[in-house]
Amino acid sequence: MPVVRYAAQALVYGLFALGIGVLSQWPDYTRVEPDKALIRLSFAHGAARKGECRRRSREELMKLAPNMRKPLDCPRERLPVVVELDLNGEPVFAASLAPTGLSGDGASKVYERFVVPAGRHRIDLRLRDTARTAGFDHMRTVDVDLVPGRALAIDFKAANGGFIIE
Amino acid sequence: MEAIRKPLRLIFMAVEGTFDRIFGEAWNPFYCLGALGYFYFWIVAGSGIYIYIFFDTGVPQAYESVEYMTNEQWYLAGVMRSLHRYASDALVVMMMGHMLRVFAYGRYNGARWFSWITGVPMIWLVMIAGITGYWLVWDKLAQYVAIGATEWLDWLPIFGEPVARNFLSPSHLDGRFFTLMVFLHIAVPLILLFVMWFHLQRVGHAKINPARGLAIGTGLMMVILSLVWPATSQGIANLSEIASPVSPDWFYLAWFPLMDAISAGPMWGIAVFGTIVLFLVPWLPPAKKQPAALVDLDNCNGCNRCVIDCPFSAISLMPRSDDAPFTHEARVDDDLCVSCGICVGSCPTATPFRRTGALVPGIDLPGLSLADLRARTDAAGAILSGPGRVLVFGCEHGLRSEKFTDGRTAAVILPCTGMLPPAFIDYVISRGLADGVAVTGCRPGECHYRQGQRWLSERIAGERDPRLRRRVPRERVAEIWAAPIEGNRFERELEAFRAELPAAGGGTPPLPDKVTEAAD
């Protein structure tokens, strides 16, 4: 009887171990089909301030505490960043990105992912970060050849000249 | 809620019965799912400490160091890595199984709410610990997990910059991020350990270690699994490529494909809503509170037995508040008392032989006082007739023994069989109320009130105070522990016991009344 019992225990342990072993790595999961590529657009960029800085008058400065007497009075709030992405001439993303922060003085941020067929694509990128009402401050057009499984990154850094393709 | 619980409970009872036959009651893993969770936690912690020695937090070095462990030092570090993974998976199984079982048996409401709600954050902590662990390997699965987790976090409007940007391209990746992950992967389990300790604060005699045989068996199973099927990585991560397909650990990472399907916002909805519902479960609906046990100072000498035996740490010993010549007295915390009556069973003054004055023990249950219990016992004995009369003491949560009442069998039902002072068995036999006494209740190891079955069994065996007196013929006492679905077995064993019973009075000397029935 103990032999049968130990054998049954071994069977239970074996089945449990099999369940653990299998479910810890099977079945496979495919997030993106193998013939596709991925484009990710992401940046954090602060647009220009909403208003111009104003020089404080002497009277105004004198009314302030000595440690608060900054000559320029600049509004904190930033403008939204407008960004557009076209793929092969078709708009796939367009957004006006509000600044972050409780006072609206932080960077505007975006993180978007686009699954596209592998192959050659033309990407048009446009970004506006000033108070201008027409046109864009930064534009870039690139032709990319995306092999299946490629993950293309599009970043934006004004100090580095604008859109960065990696 | 009972409509959900009942089918679950029946499944558990059936499976546990099978496991009783395979493992025996002491080794039945279903009776110590929580303890097994602790056991796997310690395996995870021990193996984690070892592999941390070899782990490197640099971006390419993380993957290389794990590969070294897996391939070069496979015989120790590789096994440790596999143990780390598989024991983590088993921990999830035990945690969820434990929670489901507690729910199925309705052991989460009333005074037991505390253990339930302190268990809920553990689910989050275990998941976070596991997810950050998969991150550290920095293989393709880690890449998928890192991007998925940060995309999920980015749904919350609290980050100035998308966290997922850290994984936008190889140039965005910083080794310091791994340092942060290592910190989290160590800190979160430490917080988990604290919560695990907290989880048991209102549990007396908490079972945090599985039986030795079970620990050896499951430990061996883990080692063999690690040797036969070692955990491996899935190719170094490359942020210029899509991490797909991957082979996720579904115990921890099933959330990620679900999030891909429904997007991050609904996933947050499920997670938050699910957590809130879990927190509220003990009050859906609120349990009817039974009156808590009452201490009668005139009969309490502060002997400490009820304090030791209470499975819910609801009784403490306090300095004496009256003029009695004792140093301490028992005091019941009403909020913690589940009204199981186990304290009554442990009280040496709880004896039905007392005929002088009112029958009031040192601690009593208002819902079923000792005097009521004696009256019910007397009444049950009075309906018995003929040879082979058996009086059954049963409980509200094990087999419903009152269903077997006939001219030769009578039943007295207690909230928990652990409430039964052993002197009652003596009383029934010595007074000729029945030819034999059968006690029944939840199966050993799975008492609804945790310890009632064990305490009474030990008292009958003379191993625990207050003991069943030696003069009671043991052939007239049977323990037939049975779940509600084991009516046939109960009936078989009851009839077998009845058949073996000696004639009434045979070998039993007449017994005098006593004021108290202390240990022999």
Describe it for me?
The complex is a heterodimer of chains A (166) and B (520). Chain A has one domain. In chain A, 17% of the residues lie in helices and 42% in strands. Chain A is elongated, with a radius of gyration of 28 Å. Chain A starts with a helix and ends with a strand. Chain B is of the alpha/beta class and 520 residues long. Chain B has 17 helices and eight strands. In chain B, strands 6-5-7-8 form a four-stranded parallel β-sheet, with helices on both faces. In chain B, helix 16 links the parallel strand 7 and strand 8. Chains A and B meet through helix 1, strand 1, strand 6 and strand 9 of A and helix 1, helix 4, helix 6, helix 8 and helix 10 of B.
How is the secondary structure organized here?
The complex is a heterodimer of chains A (166) and B (520).
Chain A: H1 2-23, E1 36-45, E2 54-55, H2 58-63, E3 72-73, E4 81-87, E5 90-97, E6 108-117, E7 119-128, E8 138-146, E9 151-157, E10 162-165
Parallel strand pairs in A: 1-9
Antiparallel strand pairs in A: 1-6, 2-3, 4-5, 4-7, 7-8, 9-10
Chain B: H1 2-23, H2 33-54, H3 59-72, H4 74-104, H5 113-136, H6 140-154, H7 175-199, H8 212-228, H9 250-253, H10 255-262, H11 264-280, E1 294-295, H12 305-309, E2 315-319, E3 328-332, H13 342-346, E4 363-364, H14 370-382, E5 390-395, E6 409-414, H15 423-430, E7 436-439, H16 452-460, E8 477-479, H17 487-500
Parallel strand pairs in B: 5-6, 5-7, 7-8
Antiparallel strand pairs in B: 1-4, 2-3
Helix pairs in contact in B: 1-4, 2-4, 3-4, 4-5, 4-8, 5-6, 5-7, 5-11, 10-11
